[in-house]
Amino acid sequence: MDIEIKTMEGSLAVVVLGGDMDLYCAGQVRDCAKEHWEKRKDALIIDMARLDYIDSSGIGTIIKLFAEARERGLEFFLAAVPPNIYKVMELTKLIGFLPIFDTVPEAVGKLHNSRIQQRSEVDERGPLLINSRHRLFNTNGMKQKDFNIDFGRIRYLSHLISQQAPPEIREFNLLEQQISEIVKNAVRHGNLNDIRKKVRVWYSFDTGYARLIIQDEGKGFAKLEEWNEFFRKRMECFEHQNYEGMADYISYRTEESNDDDGGNALFAAVEYWDAGVVFNETRNAVAVGKTFRQRKQ
To answer: pTM for this one?
Structure first.
């Protein structure tokens, strides 16, 4: 049996199985999963696309891992189950019991949507969080670069970063545009356009996910709570179709805003970065994540 472990987005692991999962090797999968949980304490996706055969021992191992994940309070998904393996699961009445997805990106998307829901249930103050221990701040597996740039080179830096992403997720320059807004905030509002100050960037891309961390050398987003409250009132107007009230919440502006500030970049960021928009405690670094659905041929 072949077992390959792929780490995604820092700590999420995908275990790719190949060959036969039977009495003689099912234990290897169990040991692999437990080792990941002990080290990372994070979700696990079993990619079964290359699996040729499974027997009752293999099925038993899958069930035990699913049960143990629930005990640990962690997510455990199966993905890309071949038709013959799927049939065995049907015969053992596991379809509908085990979380099964057609592809690994779909499983990753479900995981992030679940975490977004958990985030909203835990923190109702607003979409912008403060938590440097949040998983979006995990830099494992991410590329990192430092830049000394002024406002005139923001588009260049944003283009440079977005070109590292696979073509499938560039979305007709929308990814680049959203990266540009975060870089713009770091250069203009964080570093005050001082080219002597650095913008530190971490990034990670694949066909199902984009993740970015940008840190400046500024004083941080002091009015984050005020923005969250503004956003809450804005959404209340939309939800209640209060068209007159909406006029007061078209854009968020402060005494530090200038004529070039549209005042709505963060609204778009919250909508686009669906895995979260999280700041560190000093508020001069923001981590964001975006899930992309795999396009069907």
So the answer is: 0.60
Residue 263: C-alpha distances to residues 60, 185, 227, 239, 247 (Å): 55, 11, 11, 21, 13
Helices (H), 123-242: 154-162, 174-184, 224-239
Q: How far apart are the first and last CA of the chain?
A: 30
All CATH 3.30.565.10 domain ranges of the chain, comma separated, are 124-291
| Residue 51 CB-density burial (10 A; 0-12 exposed, 13-18 middle, 19+ buried) | buried
Strand order in the sheet with 199-206: 128-130, 276-279, 285-291, 209-215, 199-206, 143-147
Q: At what angle do helices 265-272 and 224-239 cross, to 10 degrees?
A: 70
List, for residues 183-210, the tens digit of each pLDDT value.
999 998 999 999 999 999 999 998 888 9
CATH superfamily of the 2-102 domain: STAS domain (3.30.750.24)
Q: Do residues 228 and 127 touch, judged by C-beta distance below 8 A? A: yes
Single-letter residue type at 216: D
For residue 129, the cross-strand partners are 278
Q: List pLDDT tens digits, range 75-122.
A: 889 999 999 999 888 887 788 778 899 998 888 877 766 555 544 443
Distance (Å, whole) CA 183 – CA 215: 9
Residue listed under structure tokens 């650095």: 198
Question: Which pair of structure tokens corresponds to residue 143?
Answer: 């590329």
Structural fold of domain 124-291: Heat Shock Protein 90 (3.30.565)
Of the candidate ranges 51-60, 100-109, 195-204, 250-259, the one whose mean pLDDT is the lowest: 250-259
Contacts of 118 (CB under 8 A, 6+ apart): none
